[in-house]
Amino acid sequence: xxxxxxxxxxxxxxxxxxxxxxxxxxxxxxxxxxxxxxxxxxxxxxxxxxxxxxxxxxxxxxxxxxxxxxxxxxxxxxxxxxxxxxxxxxxxxxxxxxxxxxxxxxxxxxxxxxxxxxxxxxxxxxxxxxxxxxxxxxxxxxxxxxxxxxxxxxxxxxxxxxxxxxxxxxxxxxxxxxxxxxxxxxxxxxxxxxxxxxxxxxxxxxxxxxxxxxxxxxxxxxxxxxxxxxxxxxxxxxxxxxxxxxxxxxxxxxxxxxxxxxxxxxxxxxxxxxxxxxxxxxxxxxxxxxxxxxxxxxxx
Length: 300
Description:
single chain, alpha/beta, Rossmann fold, 8-stranded mixed β-sheet, 8 strands, 40% helix
């Protein structure tokens, strides 16, 4: 089932995203090269926890530019590109959250980067750090959710958003699928991005109990939510949009706030919540200082 967020994501992929990288290196895991970036390693001597950055779907190391250079001033930082994305080689492994978490653990072991870790995940990366913490809780000191995908949300919840604005969910989802197909125009995405896209669709339609995220870890956490409206995807003239984008965005944002705001209080004994009207889904672009400040707090 295609989602409106998938459409927005797809349009970003086909409108000139650049993949140039700087100061990274390759690490071999199971015969495949992963592009990794290390900084601030001098802080290891002071026993500062390692900050592990897990990017959003299809993103590259470039996505961390707003906060990376500030983070390495006070903490060792590890960032990387998942299989088949950016400069990392495709390994033909389905990028489910647990599979990605296992690859991440192998990378950290290979580089001799010992726990504890502060895991920071943006969007789909939030699902991945949740899977890592659910299966390897003893490795993790804190979780930083940067406008994460909601791992408690179901496909029925998504349909209810369309219903709440008087739109037909089936018609809306069919429209999104058709427009996504139009903009991709048969072009092939890089294999890792295509596989992540499929993994997200599969995750969204899998029941919560079968998502294999492990037990809910009681760890210090912060949740950042951006409420600034995103650009509306263009609609080709031959398509008739069966819902109002702003109405959908407002309803979806309300649902996200209601759901995500429970995480710091229901799942953690030390939880923090920040909601900003100045940040979009890319919260660390709109409010970089806020994200940096909280990560620094968890390192202390």
